[in-house]
Amino acid sequence: MNDFITPKNHKAFKAQVLSSHIDDEVKDCAIAYIDPRGGGPDPDHTHPHDHLFTVIAGEIEIRMDGDAFAVTEGMSLRVPGEKRHSVWNTGLTTAKVMGISLRKE
């Protein structure tokens, strides 16, 4: 995991961008390994692009505008960038999550 980083305001969270500036709709694609009780950012944040999170292994909780959404292995959830959000591992094992950043039209 030499090319992995821990983004600002995240904990027990390692991510690596797999590809960026893919096309007019897809900004980038990354893979993240989030340890139990890890996640972020803290506090929740917003930005101009959406995320599409897919859980490859484990389980996460996506906090969005005061609500919490459980996303388990094989599930995906699109998070509008203008909603305050963060991602947390609520499971007992490391979660493996694919994140795709989608530009707004």
UniProtKB/TrEMBL annotation:
Matching entries from InterPro entries are given as: Cupin_2 (IPR013096), RmlC-like_jellyroll (IPR014710), RmlC_Cupin_sf (IPR011051)
Annotated ranges, domain Cupin type-2: 38-98
What is the name of this protein?
A: Cupin domain-containing protein
| Organism whose genome encodes this protein | Desulfoluna spongiiphila
